[in-house]
């Protein structure tokens, strides 16, 4: 496929690289391309912190093994950054600054010439302060550079038989906390427990939004349509067992990035 050849040529020109690797479809595609283009001169690195949802690291390891790229983990300390804990709308800037500080440092020590991300062309239209942090660290975005959007990302991932080609987006646990509400390890762990409990009931795609004592569950449209009184009660019990005094199931179906939506709209109007 011509697009794959173009992307591999771009990555090969870098000589060697570290891929910021979450195991999601975007970074998995970049890692697969890097493995094909650079072989042992490519390394996938997954950041581990309290904001990483349970199961995501295991998933990343499985994808790395399947696509044939060397894989390591690092520990990041974004919770030590006041700007991250404050959880203003630039939270992702502080998170990515921590990540790229660690990855560029690792690259320098190991003599890798570039750090790559899975940012794609569709990310430009969303509120992405993490891209500012990436620019400050000279991170390379092969997919964004080539104008590859989310739909094409999945198409290319399927063509390369990347295991996470159909994986739903799974951003960090802090994305479940509304802007302005402080992020702390206890809250992140509570959200993680609640989501795991609902997943154990058979729901694969969901979010539990944290509003203090209230846990608001967002399900897909299909799941909402099939929601019975019994299932509603089971979800409520599961989320309450994670430490929430009140549980609400949103009548609006889950939509990735919903906390950013109104803010992004205001930015567009203001500009």
> Order of strands across the biggest sheet?
3-2-1-4
Q: What's the tally of helices?
A: 12
In the CATH scheme, what's the topology name of the largest domain? Answer: Rossmann fold
Name the CATH homologous superfamily of the largest domain: HUPs
What is the structural class? Answer: alpha/beta
* Percent of residues in beta strands: 5-15%
Q: Give the name of the CATH architecture of the largest domain.
A: 3-Layer(aba) Sandwich
Number of domains: 2
Helix content: 40-55%
Rounded average pLDDT? 93
Q: Any low-confidence stretches, pLDDT <50, length ≥5?
A: 260-271
Shape: globular
Radius of gyration: 19 Å
Give the total of beta strands: 7
| H/E element sequence | HEHEHEHHEHHHHEEHHEH
Distance between the termini: 39 Å
CATH class of the largest domain: Alpha Beta
Structural description of this entry:
There is one protein chain. The chain folds into two domains: 2-159, Rossmann fold (3-Layer(aba) Sandwich), CATH 3.40.50.620; 184-259, Alpha-Beta Plaits. The chain is globular and about 55 Å long. It has twelve helices and seven strands. Mean pLDDT is 93; it is low at 260-271. A hairpin with a 2-residue loop joins strand 5 and strand 6 (214-219). By secondary structure, it is α/β, with parallel strands linked by helices.
């Amino acid at each position: 496929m011509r697009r794959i050849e173009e992307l591999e040529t771009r990555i090969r020109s870098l000589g060697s690289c570290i891929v910021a690797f979450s195991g999601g479809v975007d970074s998995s595609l970049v890692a697969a391309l890097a493995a094909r283009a650079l072989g042992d001169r490519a390394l996938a690195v997954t950041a581990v912190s309290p904001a990483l949802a349970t199961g995501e690291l295991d998933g990343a390891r499985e994808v790395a093994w399947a696509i044939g790229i060397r894989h390591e983990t690092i520990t990041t300390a974004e919770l030590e950054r006041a700007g991250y804990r404050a959880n203003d709308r630039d939270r992702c800037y502080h998170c990515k600054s921590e990540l790229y500080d660690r990855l560029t440092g690792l690259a320098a020590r190991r003599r890798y010439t570039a750090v790559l991300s899975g940012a794609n062309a569709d990310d430009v239209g969303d509120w992405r302060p993490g891209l500012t942090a990436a620019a400050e660290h000279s991170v390379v975005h092969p997919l964004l550079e080539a104008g590859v959007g989310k739909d094409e990302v999945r198409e290319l991932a399927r063509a390369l038989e990347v295991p996470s080609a159909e994986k739903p987006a799974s951003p960090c646990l802090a994305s479940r906390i509304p802007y302005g509400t402080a992020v702390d390890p206890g809250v992140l762990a509570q959200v993680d427990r609640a989501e795991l409990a609902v997943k154990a009931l058979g729901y694969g795609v969901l979010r539990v939004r944290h509003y203090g004592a209230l846990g608001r569950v967002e399900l897909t449209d299909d799941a909402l349509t099939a929601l019975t009184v019994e299932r509603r009660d089971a979800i409520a019990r599961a989320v309450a067992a994670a430490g929430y005094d009140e549980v609400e199931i949103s009548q609006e179906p889950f939509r990735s990035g919903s906390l950013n939506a109104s803010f992004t709209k205001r930015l567009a109007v203001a500009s």
